[in-house]
Known about the structure:
Largest sheet: 7 strands, antiparallel
Shape: globular
Amino acid sequence: xxxxxxxxxxxxxxxxxxxxxxxxxxxxxxxxxxxxxxxxxxxxxxxxxxxxxxxxxxxxxxxxxxxxxxxxxxxxxxxxxxxxxxxxxxxxxxxxxxxxxxxxxxxxxxxxxxxxxxxxxxxxxxxxxxxxxxxxxxxxxxxxxxxxxxxxxxxxxxxxxxxxxxxxxxxxxxxxxxxxxxxxxxxxxxxxxxxxxxxxxxxxxxxxxxxxxxxxxxxxxxxxxxxxxxxxxxxxxxxxxxxxxxxxxxxxxxxxxxxxxxxxxxxxxxxxxxxxxxxxxxxxxxxxxxxxxxxxxxxxxxxxxxxxxxxxxxxxxxxxxxxxxxxxxxxxxxxxxxxxxxxxxxxxxxxxxxxxxxxxxxxxxxxxxxxxxxxxxxxxxxxxx
Length: 385
């Protein structure tokens, strides 16, 4: 499906472009260490075992990419803004005709959170030559020749991928508290369990005045994960799939993913070691597979986990389910299943609901969340080969 078809035009030439650029490692270090100059920062990184030249090169590639994009847009007389601040990007996203994340997959995922409908196109540019974290971005040849991007948009030489996204509806208390990034999580440091369970009277009143239901404004492009923040602590959850009877289980968490996310964390959760596969096959058929046969079988299995990014179904994956209660009254519950709607209720102590491994909200005892996918939640992604 061509974007030009959606716009009832023979070509597409954006008038207003928003570039959402990531902070390079050097820029991030400057921000975290305002009292140090560049040489001092690089010296400290060297002492910590990092390569200063690598940090500098990455920074130069990022800045060069931003400058090249700006130069091309000026030449084409296209109004634009390039920002590294999410607050600024949030204000500008409605103004823009096209959103261009400048960075790897993480930047693309972050920029996707700014777009709440399926009408605004997005395409990603990666300033770094790498085989990693480039699933969402255009091939690197476009980074070195950005003018060709807009030439192809104008001539219609591109495809449009409507990537399905998950909408989350939460019920419970404290739904409108400020979300936090998972690396900021340190809420129970130095605090006893008994103390953390005691909430102040003011907090209770504040929670009582808030709505008990909230449609989250962030749509998940890859996945939503629910689990305890302390990795060694299991979480107890109640799961209902479609209109089936629900059940309670204990595990290390649950991941609900899209077709796009089936190539990400969900896939790695399902990876089986080669020696485990060999042992199972040998027990099943009495034959030990060769390494070549094992690799072929593993590849076939991993490919079976993937499904199209535009698929309107979700797949849940229960991570490390406790085996004792799995088969209860002759019922054996699956670790994963593809479906259209999921509802999860929490019995957690210090748990979180995490969208695309970035935005997180508390998801403790009594809170519940339902997940669904509809065409209007999709992300319009421009694809070029």
